[in-house]
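Thread amino acids onto this structure.
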């Protein structure tokens, strides 16, 4: 049967109420983001932030800002690992744009808004389906906490902190906790390197293991990002506290912020630093450094990410909805068979 005689597929038309509903949901989404930004802005003492930054020498601020910028670039590469893992066809520039915007809003507004909602929205705008977006998100989250496990394990094992007596965990237990965290990170890498079974089945879900090289890449970039974050605080403290201690306190504060579910960890990070480091440095100087850290690592990038988000949305609005992206086959899954010519 010729192509002309073949019956044409009927076009599936959306319900008449869907366009209006979609516009309403989009408007509600941005109203929610704007509301969260407004609430966040009201909780920040802007004059204190500016005064704290103003007390630093320009060289110190520039060095801390450079470390912060490197940290955001490194984090944006997490989604490049997801790109290679899934084989989706978006360009590295598109992927890193989504990664940067999502990370900044994740820091300031929490993982549900930043890490999840923005990734799903922006990647869907670029044409990826939900299954691929979920895989990219999963790889990104795994990458982030893999480096945390490695560094926290090393710090707690070889440079344990003196914890306050009122904390539920005592200092002698930290090396045991560090050994467990370090073992988890190494177990993941060894599984990816040595496992012959490349697909893990959990009930009805299947998850393909990354390659050993990809697992090592995850470990390297995530560890680098956490080290750069600690470097920003270390620089703003003007090297008056040793770097391993600053790194350990930052790692504890990061987990405390996640547990507390406070946007941007407001007050949590400061409380952890003051509790652990006030015997070694006056609380006023600690808070000044952390306010400057908030300004450089949270508020400044938030302005940049908001402008980038507006630009991306305007481009999509001008060009129309994106077509579904064609999936790129990952290199490690490409077949080696060549098509034989017809006789």
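Threaded sequence (343 positions):
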């Amino acid at each position: 049967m010729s192509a002309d005689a073949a019956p044409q597929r009927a076009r599936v038309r959306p319900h008449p109420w869907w366009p209006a509903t979609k516009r309403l949901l989009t408007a509600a989404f941005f109203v929610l983001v704007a509301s969260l930004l407004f609430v966040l802005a009201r909780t920040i003492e802007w004059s204190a932030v500016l005064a704290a930054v103003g007390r630093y020498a320009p060289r110190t601020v520039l060095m801390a800002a450079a470390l912060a910028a490197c940290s955001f670039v490194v984090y944006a590469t997490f989604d490049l690992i997801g790109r290679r893992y899934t084989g989706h066809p978006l360009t590295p520039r598109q992927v890193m744009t989504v990664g940067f915007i999502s990370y900044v809003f994740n820091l300031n507004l929490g993982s549900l808004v930043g890490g999840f909602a923005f990734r799903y929205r922006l990647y869907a705008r670029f044409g990826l389906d939900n299954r691929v977006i979920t895989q990219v998100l999963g790889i990104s989250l795994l990458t982030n906490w893999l480096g945390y496990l490695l560094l926290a394990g090393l710090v707690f094992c070889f440079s344990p902190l003196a914890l306050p007596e009122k904390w539920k965990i005592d200092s002698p237990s930290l090396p045991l906790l560090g050994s467990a965290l370090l073992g988890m990170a190494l177990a993941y890498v060894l599984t990816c390197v040595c496992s012959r079974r490349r697909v893990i089945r959990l009930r009805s879900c299947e998850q393909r293991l990354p390659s050993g090289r990809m697992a090592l890449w995850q470990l390297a970039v995530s560890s680098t990002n956490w080290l750069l974050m600690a470097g920003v605080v270390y620089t703003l403290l003007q090297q008056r506290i040793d770097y391993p201690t600053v790194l350990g306190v930052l790692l504890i504060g990061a987990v405390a912020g996640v547990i507390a579910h406070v946007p941007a960890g407001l007050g949590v990070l400061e409380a952890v630093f003051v509790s652990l480091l006030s015997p070694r440095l006056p609380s006023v100087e600690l808070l000044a450094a952390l306010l400057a850290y908030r300004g450089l690592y949270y508020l400044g990038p938030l302005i940049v990410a908001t402008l980038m988000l507006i630009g991306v949305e305007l481009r999509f609005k001008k060009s129309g909805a994106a077509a579904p992206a064609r999936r790129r086959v990952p290199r490690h899954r490409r077949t080696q068979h060549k098509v034989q010519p017809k006789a």
